[in-house]
Amino acid sequence: MSAAEEPTERLDLVGYEKITEHGLGLPVFGRSPRPNVFYTARCSDPVGAGGLIAGFDLYEPDGLVGLPLDQVRETGIGEPWLDVFLWEGAAYVGTAAEIWHALGEARTSIAEHAPLSLLALAEGDASLPASQLSGVAFSWLTERYGKQRALKWCRDTHLRGILLKALRRELGNSVHKAEMRLALQEKLSIQQHGNTITANIMPPLPFLPEVDVREFHAAASSFGLASACANDGSDTSSGSRKEKERSLANRTTEDAMRVAALRVAASKPEGKATTTELKHEVSQYLVLTPRDMAPSKTRPNEVMYQQIVGNIVSHRKSRNNIFARGWAIYTGRGIQITDAGREYLRALGL
Amino acid sequence: MGQIEARPCSVFKRDLVYLFLGRPAYRLPNGDAKSDQINRFPCAFVIRPDNLGSPFHVYPFDTGAGVSGCYGDIVDPHVYLEDYELDPELRAAQKHIAWAFGGNRQYYQGDLIPGLAKGLHAWQSVGLGYLTIAGLAATGSNRPDKRASAIEIAYAKHLPLKGHVRLAIFPQQLIEDDRGKNSEFVADLRKHGLLWETYDWRAYEAPDFFVDELTRIVGNSLEGAYLL
Which of A201, A250, B8, B103 has most Cβ atoms within 10 angstroms of its Cβ? Predict the structure, then answer.
């Protein structure tokens, strides 16, 4: 049995390979602090962050940088994922949280010069402030490379990344099937119309749980973007499939939009939401259909459902609207939910 | 960042630059197993071939992968590598795509026209051998390796980036911290006015993930140019 074929349950983190002089590098492992056969680790979680070491694979380094002996660290299958982070000539080794704390005050400088790398590190542990750093990264990109480049990163890398991670988690081991790999490239699309980001998840990708879609909306909202997600992936439960087929064929009803608008207002201080806030946030309470997200024919920079939300506020004389029913009052800039409106939501179990 | 340099090729015994037509197909066959730097930190250049002159050779698959045995024992041992060579011109590659795939999109996905082998006689061993190899790249293959049907175009000269690159793709770390080593890279991006895109590199991702990200980005670019 050659050295390469021996079981590899426990190894030393002995060095790394790097893309450039800063940020995350590729951790490289061996059987001893100065080995001649090398490995990379495989992560237990298909999207990595916060996962465990699931195994080791042979690796042929091209430009290995060995760690000083006092940084060589033994680890093994089932133990937390280890990263190597480079900053100003030093290598920081450990879990994402360990590196984060070891960086200390250097984080200020990293945020100033390499915020994407700092964000990548923070995404490795749920306790770290990744969402704040995404705003820092956006500002940095805007300043360095312009608004369009920053928006592209926000849309195609950051927001798409949130949905991609969630989908890969849902897929589990199926994520390695050629059909699903192709679907992740072609059936998850993110588009931007004006200030609105719309995501489409189509079969054979799986239907995403609401909690994941909410994370997407929250992230979009943190950039001041309205968002919508046509979450039309495959679902094996027959009950919800009927519901979904119906929603695919039609627009969301105005009644459903009214309820969602009331929920947005209920979530705000004093129950007040501006029309802009309603248009941006109503999608967090609905599963929108592709027809909802078709571009508006009369309002550039808006999609259909936003136009309907606008109508809910502006068509105040309609007999069935939220004002006539006493569920909300018009504030001049939007709506304020009334006690009757809150009671109505409670009656709906919302 | 001025040019892609021709490097010594041990198979064809001369300095060559290897490109694949329309696909980022560079990886070793087992994306989750033994790997090296190119699998872990891939970069891609999408090149316009219009003004590059004639290629040194055009093959309907990655010859390097074939020579190193990546296509396994399905290769007909009685067919020599050079028998598969197409005419050394881009038009030959286009004709090959039309014959084997029917269109650019199908070629991009590696999906051959079904039933092609039935139209060949048993003595047409080169065509049959090619279809067997290229079948390894199909979406439904149990060991998909896109190099098996990626058309290889080699140039026997350095390729200047300026004027020939339509898109560069690399890890997003390279556009950060331009105080040191990255400063030249970022300056060159700006100076040459190259279109570029980045992907989100993570140490925990397997090489397959990077292949898929590059494939998606290149595919979007080609679609945007109405080439797919």
Answer: A201
A296 class by beta-carbon count within 10 Å (0-12 exposed, 13-18 middle, 19+ buried) = middle
Q: How far is CA A253 from CA A87, A259, A295, A303, A323, in A?
A: 53, 10, 17, 15, 18
* Confidence (pLDDT) at A248: 47
| Tokens coding A259 | 């309820």
pLDDT of res. B192: 77
Judging contacts by C-beta atoms under 8 Å, the chain B residues touching residue A188 are none
For A142-201, give the DSSP string: HHHH-HHHHHHIIIIIIIHHHHHHHHHHHHGGGGGSHHHHHHHHHSEEEEEETTEEEEEE
> Cβ neighbours of residue A50 under 8 Å, at least 6 residues apart?
A81, A96, A124, A125, A126
Taking CA atoms, what residue in B is nearest to A184? B212
**Overall pTM > 0.90:** no
- Burial of residue A329 (CB within 10 Å: 0-12, 13-18, 19+) is middle
Which ipTM value was assigned to this complex?
0.85
Tokens of A242: 């009927």
Average pLDDT of the segment spanning A265-274: 92
Taking only the tens place, the pLDDT of each residue in B214-227 is: 999 999 988 887 78
The pLDDT-based confidence of B141 (bands split at 50, 70, 90) is low
Nearest CB to B176 within list A40, A60, A116: A116
d(CA A131, CA A45): 21
Partner-chain contact A120 B202, CB within 8 Å? yes
The torsion defined by the Cα of A93, A94, A100 and A104, in degrees rounded to 10, comes to: -50
Angle at A234 between CA A232 and CA A238, to 5 degrees: 105
